[in-house]
């Protein structure tokens, strides 16, 4: 098990093409107590896929609060409009990027489509049910989670309105931190969530985003990248 963990850590250490900071620091919501959440994308060398034992699709670590996806898995999730993965591509805090990583970032708009409304809304609905359960059982939600759900709903609405995914909350920092501190009553938070969800629904009707992501463009990038990796290994 330790050897497997070491090999996975080597993929992150030696083959990362893109790495960024996510979480509260990327959202503009960091405080002195905030952790530094790191996310990345690594390109497993093509010859590793010729073996029976394939490289891992994701790796936790090796540093604390670090998580990375293999490039293909990352693209699959982004094509499905996974909120966490799409936001990773738009982090303002990039720590490492290679030529492959720069090409991935240049493809950010190719992943965006109206599907984002469905996936963001579905994820938000699931998180909201958890908050409502906390209120029933404990009399209050987990305030930090309530803050981040409001942020996600704002991000979804604004993406549909503008066609751009912006994750830094900007002027909403203090109102959101007030939620995290428990200074906003749950009924008011619940009303805000309902309003934001309705605004996203309205924006989805008028959005200029395409119905589907540009899958062919992403697949072409992935194939070219895999071929280049195979040529590099054979050189």
**Secondary-structure class:** alpha+beta
CATH architecture of the largest domain: 2-Layer Sandwich
* SSE arrangement, N to C: HEHEEEHHEHHHHHHH
Number of domains: 2
Q: Describe the global form.
A: globular
- Rg, Å, rounded: 19 Å
Distance between the termini: 32 Å
Spatial arrangement of strands, main beta sheet: 3-4-2-1-5
Overview in brief:
Helices cover 59% and strands 11% of the residues. The chain has eleven helices and five strands.
Q: Care to describe what's here?
A:
With 235 residues, the chain is of the alpha+beta class. The protein has 2 domains: 129 residues, Beta Polymerase, domain 2 (2-Layer Sandwich); 92 residues, no CATH class. The protein contains 11 helices and 5 strands; from the N terminus they run H-E-H-E-E-E-H-H-E-H-H-H-H-H-H-H. A 5-stranded mixed β-sheet has the order 3-4-2-1-5. Helix 8 packs antiparallel against helix 9 and helix 8 runs parallel beside helix 10. The chain is globular and about 65 Å long. The protein starts with a helix and ends with a helix. The N terminus is likely disordered.
């Amino acid at each position: 098990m330790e050897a497997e963990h070491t090999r996975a850590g080597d993929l992150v250490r030696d083959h990362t093409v893109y790495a960024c900071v996510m979480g509260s620091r990327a959202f503009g919501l960091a405080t002195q107590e905030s952790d530094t959440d790191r996310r990345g994308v690594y390109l497993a060398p093509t010859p590793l896929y010729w073996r029976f034992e394939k490289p891992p699709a994701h790796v936790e670590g090796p540093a604390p609060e670090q998580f990375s996806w293999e490039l293909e898995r990352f693209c699959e999730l982004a094509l499905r409009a996974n909120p966490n993965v799409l936001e990773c591509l738009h982090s303002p805090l990039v720590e490492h990027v290679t030529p492959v990583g720069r090409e991935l970032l240049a493809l950010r708009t190719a992943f965006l489509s109206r599907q984002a409304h469905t996936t963001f809304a579905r994820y938000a609905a699931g998180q909201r049910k958890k908050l409502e359960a906390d209120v029933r059982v404990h009399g209050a939600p987990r305030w930090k989670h309530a803050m981040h759900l409001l942020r996600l709903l704002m991000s979804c609405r604004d993406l549909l309105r503008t066609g751009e995914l912006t994750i830094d909350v900007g002027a909403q920092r203090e109102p959101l931190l007030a939620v995290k501190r428990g200074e906003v009553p749950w009924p008011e938070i619940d009303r805000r969530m309902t309003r934001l969800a309705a605004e996203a629904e309205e924006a989805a009707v008028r959005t200029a985003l395409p119905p589907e992501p540009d899958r062919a463009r992403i697949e072409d990038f992935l194939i070219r990248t895999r071929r280049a990796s195979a040529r590099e290994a054979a050189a």
